[in-house]
């Protein structure tokens, strides 16, 4: 479990990025921070691996105050995936993935074997191992970024808008791959996005944030959709419009669900999905 306790981050120029923030992030599940630009999502994420140190408060991982840990070792033990993949342009795909294992003292051979395994895990053909990042598509680069984040087999994977820069179709593919991976690997994932649909798709726990990392609501997607904390959250999650504003329409063959534009989204059936 990751805990934020009374966390604040004030920058020297007077910006109060985070003020008295408290949150528990359960292990083996995914938590998504969602909110508009500049609300403090990245700052919160980077406090988990000490890329940013808080001005006040304590971050704990499994009960241990991380300020007492060696920052470099901590950072290497936690996976980090960023927007635009952050790959080293003059390193091959395999060498990019193997960076952290190499830094941690693994042999070249073992690191490469691990890199090839991980390419397979994230759905990349191993024939691409010796290509350079510019020889890959944006979506493939992001997969390499995810493989690199997983290279040290971390318990925690931090993902900062990892799919923000790819087109919607590739983005949907990458989101589904991440859901598959999460079932397989069972990591603690902390994911940042400004896209509420992505947050609801990927998050077991969703944290809706406003400026200054103010928590507007924390809950599962169902809890938030069924019971938005206030009008601002209702409007932010699009409860009154788009694909989430569904109503029942009676047809000759039984009730169907239609969205705010009148498009049929599905059939209303009795009982659970397995019946
Ligand atoms: N080094 C810094 N010095 C001063 N202010 C900073 C610094 N880093 C971030 N900030 C400010 O802190 C606030 C939170 O920034 P942060 O990057 O965490 O937001 P974000 O929600 O991740 O935004 P985005 O979605 O645009 O990436 C912003 O007002 C930002 O300008």
Automatic annotation (TrEMBL):
Pfam families: ABC_tran (PF00005)
Stored InterPro entries: AAA+_ATPase, ABC_transporter-like_ATP-bd, ABC_transporter-like_CS, P-loop_NTPase
Gene3D superfamilies: P-loop containing nucleotide triphosphate hydrolases
GO molecular function: ABC-type quaternary ammonium compound transporting activity; ATP binding; ATP hydrolysis activity
SMART domains (alphabetical): AAA
Domain ABC transporter positions: 2-237
Top-rank EC class of the record's enzyme: translocase
Family matches, as SUPFAM superfamilies: P-loop containing nucleoside triphosphate hydrolases
EC annotation from Swiss-Prot or TrEMBL: 7.6.2.9
Keywords: ATP-binding, Nucleotide-binding, Transport
UniProt similarity note: Belongs to the ABC transporter superfamily.
Protein's UniProt name: ABC-type quaternary amine transporter
Species this protein is from: Glutamicibacter ectropisis
């Amino acid at each position: 479990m990751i805990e934020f306790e009374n966390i604040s981050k004030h920058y020297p120029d007077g910006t109060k990025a985070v003020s008295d923030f408290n949150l528990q992030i359960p292990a083996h599940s995914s938590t998504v921070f969602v909110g508009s630009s500049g609300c403090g999502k990245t700052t919160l994420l980077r406090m988990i691996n000490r890329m940013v140190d808080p001005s006040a408060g304590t971050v704990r991982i499994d009960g241990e105050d991380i300020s007492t840990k060696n920052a470099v070792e901590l950072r290497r033990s936690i996976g980090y995936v960023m927007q635009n993949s952050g790959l080293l342009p003059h390193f091959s795909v395999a060498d990019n993935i193997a960076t952290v294992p190499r830094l941690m003292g693994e042999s070249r051979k073992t690191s490469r074997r691990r890199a090839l395994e991980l390419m397979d895990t994230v759905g990349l053909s191993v024939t691409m191992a010796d290509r350079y990042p510019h020889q890959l598509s944006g979506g493939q680069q992001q997969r390499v970024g995810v493989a690199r984040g997983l290279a040290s087999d971390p318990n925690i994977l931090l993902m900062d808008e990892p799919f923000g820069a790819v087109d919607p179709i590739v983005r949907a593919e990458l989101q589904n791959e991440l859901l598959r991976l999460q079932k397989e690997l069972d990591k603690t994932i902390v994911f940042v996005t400004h896209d509420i649909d992505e947050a609801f798709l990927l998050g077991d726990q969703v944290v809706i944030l406003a400026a200054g990392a103010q928590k507007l609501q924390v809950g599962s997607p169902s809890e938030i959709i069924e019971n938005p904390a206030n009008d601002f959250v209702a409007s932010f999650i699009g409860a009154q419009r788009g694909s989430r504003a569904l109503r029942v329409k009676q047809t000759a063959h039984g009730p169907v669900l239609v969205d705010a534009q009148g498009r049929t989204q599905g059939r209303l059936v009795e009982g659970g999905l397995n019946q």
